[in-house]
Amino acid sequence: MSRIELNNLAHQYAPGGDYALQPMQHVWEDGGAYALLGPSGCGKTTLLNIISGLVQPSEGKVMFGDRDVTNLSPERRNIGQVFQFPVIYDTMTVFDNLAFPLRNRSMDEHYINQRVTHIATMLGLEDVLKRRANNLTADAKQKISLGRGLVREDVAAVLFDEPLTVIDPHLKWQLRRKLREVHEQLNLTLVYVTHDQTEALTFADKVVVMLAGQVLQVGTPQALFERPEHTFVGYFIGSPGMNFMACSVEGSEAVVGDERIAVDPAMAEAARLAGGNLQLGIRPELIRPAEGDETGHLIKVDKVEDLGDYMLVTGHLGEHEVHVRLDESEKIDSDGLRVVFPVDNALLYADDKLVG
Q: What positions belong to coiled-coil segments (predicted)?
């Protein structure tokens, strides 16, 4: 297992061309579970391939602990890798597929038997170890592929490139849970590429959010939800994403059209100093209905969706569309919904970046 350091790392596929990866400086700690999250084309797979050694970066270094692996081939980096589609030998038994990486390194057969049995039990493959892989289901084959990446104890890291894409949706949560259990038991450094926020947030200790080759934020799922450092992170994380409204700042208030919304005074001062295009951001879940004598802000309701255990209200505050998530017990008046934007949850952004 290794601490992974990306030291002034950047990549251009053609000299003088656009950056596929913008210059970055990051450290991923030994034994951590990380997810690379972002839309297609944002640079996730390029970054994963640089870490694995399939692509050599045009700038910077990749360090595994104190070891510079930038120019080393994948096999010399001592990593495990699991791809989007299962990489297995159909003519081999499940046991022999799992044992292959160990036999390829001339491990002792007694150790191989113990290790394969251990991994197979963790992944729920113990009952099919003697079966050939060719007749198994797609999810079982991907479990084998996962097992092949996890079976070695001496790897610096295990890299996953969208490993659940071919799995039926109702089985994905089972495999995500298995991966979490594997991480907790083996304490491996895991890096998981996905465009699916649910996969990223349920798998990872820390999520790396990327856009256009740039790392926008590295943080826990809670931090990404509560304090997104970029408007894209706020938009991309959550369903629906964060509400954003163009505003100006006067005193300790954000002025949104005709509405004046209280914000943290220190954040308001930081926004004034930052200048640029200002936006007020708040999560749909954190807007609450006004109570008692609270004046609140009137949202004109356009649509109410009953989603089982909650309601999603879509409406307008002035010219801005706003989403509000409410308990099913909440009542909505005919003239609209009066709401409060809690000061601690109302965030200010200058040119898309969180201030304060």
A: none
